[in-house]
Amino acid sequence: MPENTPLSPLPEREPIQQSPRMGCSIGIFGWAFIGLLCLAVPVASLFLLNKFRTQKYKEFHEGAARQTIQVNLMMISAALNAYRTAAATYPTTAQGLEALMERPTEPPLPSQWFSVLRELPKDPWKQPYKYRNPATKSKNGYDLYSVGSDGVDGTADDVGNWQ
C-alpha cells in the first residue's frame, strides 16, 4: 500500500434480520421457574446451615450443662465430706442438703456442726440438686444428682455422682 492513501471504508451491509424464535424463547413460565430457583437455592442453603448450627449449639450446650453439673456435684460432695468430718455421719435424706447451711433439727443431731455452704447451687435448668442417704446408685454412701433437662426424677438424662 502506498503511503498517505486513505483507507477505503468497508462496504455497507444489510442488517441481519432475526426471526422471532432466535432470541430467548423460554416464556413466562420459564422465567418464573428460574426466579423460583434463584429464591429456593439460597433459602434451602440457609435452612440447612441453620439446622447444622442449631445442632452444634445444642451439643455444645448439653456439654456445658454436664460440666456445670459435675463441678457443682464436686463442690457439694466436698461440703458433705466436711459435714461428715464434723458430725461423724452424712445428713439423712430427711435432713437433706439444707443440713449443710442450717443446723438440722431432726435426729440424728450432729454433736458438732458448722455451716458449710451459704447457699445451694441449682442445676443448669434452675432445679435443686437431689440428695439421698443411704445411696441406691452410688458407691459414695449417698446419691447426689440433677434430674436433668426434663425435670423428672429417675429418667435417662439424670446426672449423678454414680457416673
Automatic annotation (TrEMBL):
Task: Specify the Type II secretion system protein GspG C-terminal domain's residue ranges.
Answer: 62-162
Q: Which GO terms describe its cellular component?
A: type II protein secretion system complex
**Any transmembrane segments, and where?**
28-49
Protein's UniProt keywords contain Glycosyltransferase: no
- Gene Ontology biological-process entries: protein secretion by the type II secretion system
InterPro entries tied to this protein: Pilin-like, T2SS_protein-GspG_C, Type2_sec_GspG
**SUPFAM superfamilies in the cross-refs:** Pili subunits
Cite the entry's keywords alphabetically. Answer: Membrane, Transmembrane, Transmembrane helix
Give the matching Pfam families: T2SSG (PF08334)
* Keyword Membrane annotated: yes
Query: NCBIfam families under this entry?
Result: typeII_sec_gspG (TIGR01710)
Q: What is this protein called?
A: Type II secretion system protein G
Q: Give the originating organism.
A: Roseimicrobium gellanilyticum
